[in-house]
Amino acid sequence: MDFKDTLIIWYSANKRELPWRKTKNPYHIWLSEIILQQTQVNQGLPYYERFIAQYPTVFDLANASETSILKLWQGLGYYSRARNLHTSAKLIVNEFDGEFPNNYKDLIKLKGVGDYTASAIASFAFNEVEAVVDGNVYRVLSRYFGIDTPINTTAGIKEFKSLATSLIDTEQPATFNQAIMEFGAIQCKPKNPDCSICPLQDSCVALEKQLVEVLPVKLKKTKVTKKHFNYLVFIDPHKNTLFEQRTKKGIWQNLYQFPLVESERSLNAEEFHLLNIDSELLDISNFDHSLYNEADIVHKLSHQHLYTKFWIIEVEELPKEAIPTKTLTNYPAPVLISDFINEFPF
Fold first, then answer.
1. Helix H or strand E encompassing 308
2. What is the reported pLDDT for 158?
C-alpha cells in the first residue's frame, strides 16, 4: 500500500468531526482556515461557531463594522487576520457580487490568503488538485522522507511544496489534503509521537534513523525583544476613563487600550514621575496615583515580550473624550487589557 492510500485509510478511521469538513461552502471553509492560522483547532472552533452564527454569509461579514469584528475576534491574537477577513469580504461582495473565487489563482489574490490557505480552499470547496503544506504537512513529509532542509527557508518551502504536489491523490485531492494534515495533528505530533502504532512506521526514514525528535528542521526565529508598557488608567468621580484606539500599524492595530507610556525599564510606585505624562493634553493639575500590580504582567507575543504595569490615576475631571467605565467591555481590546478590565473593581 502506498503513502497516500495509507494516509487516506487512516484518515477515514481517525478523523475528527469538525463542522467545516461537512460543507463545501467556500465562505465557511475560508473563515475556518483564516481562524486556524496560528491557532489550534480546540481554541479556534468556538470562534468559528460564533462567527458563523453572527455573520452567516459573506454579505453579513462585509456589512459589519470593523470594531464588531475585532470584538468577536478578541482573544485569538494576530488581529491582522480579522482585518484581512473584513477587507476580503467587502471585496468579494462589491467586486464579485458575493461569489467566492473558485480557483487557486484567484483565491490567492485575497488579502490574508497565502499559498496554504488558497490551496486549502481550492481543494476543500472546489476539489481543485492543489497540495496544502502547513506545519503538520511539513512535519509528516520531513520525517517520512528524512528531509532536513529547513522548512522556513525559500529552498525548503519550494522543496516541500513540490513533494506534496507529487504525492497528492488527483482523484480525491480534498480528502488527501485533509488526511495528511490530520495525520500530522493527531499521529505524527511535534513532541513524543507514538511511532509504535503508526501505519507508516515500516517505511519512515526518521524512525529508522532515530531522527523523529530532530525533524523537521527550522531555523531559529527572530530575536525576541523586551518592552516595558505602562498603562494609565484614569478614573474621575463619575466613573469615567480614557480609552483610545491604536491607529498606527503594528500589533493590535485598531484595538482599544488605556493611554500607554513606554519606559526603558520596569518602574515602581516611587518612580512614577519618570513617566512622561502629557499633563497639558489631559489638563490635570491634581491627581492621586497608585500602582495596580507591583510585579510586571508578562504578555508574550511572537517577537516581543511585554512587561506591563497598570497605574491607577484618580483625577477630578477628564476631557470630553472620556467614556463610562461600564462601557469598556463594548470595545475590542487585547487580552492583556481585557483581563485587567474584568479583574479591576471600577
1. strand 304-315
2. 96
**Cβ 242 vs Cβ 325: under 8 Å:** no
The pTM assigned to this predicted structure is 0.85
**Cβ-count burial of 115 within 10 angstroms (0-12 exposed, 13-18 middle, 19+ buried)?**
middle
pLDDT at 279 over 70: no
Q: Which residue has the cell 469598556?
A: 328
∠ CA 185-190-192, nearest 5°, is 110
Using an 8 Å Cβ cutoff, are 26 and 127 in contact? Answer: no
User: pLDDT tens across 189-213, in order?
Assistant: 999 999 999 999 999 999 999 999 9
C-alpha atoms less than 13 angstroms from C-alpha of 130 in its C-beta half-sphere: 23
Give the pLDDT band (50/70/90) at residue 165: very high
Contact (Cβ atoms closer than 8 angstroms) between residue 112 and residue 79: no
Q: How far lies 176's CA from each of 1, 128, 164, 251, in Å?
A: 15, 12, 10, 36
- Residue at grid coordinates 520531513: 142
The total of other beta-carbon atoms located within 10 Å of residue 224's CB is 11
Let me know if 317 is a catalytic residue: no
Separation CA 331–CA 329 (nearest Å):
5
At 189, which amino acid appears?
A: K
Q: What is the CA radius of gyration of the chain?
A: 24
- Kind of pairing, strands 256-257 and 244-245? antiparallel
Of the residues 33, 128, 130, 182, only one is catalytic, namely 33
Ordered structural domains, the chain, with CATH: 3-208 (1.10.340.30), 225-343 (3.90.79.10)
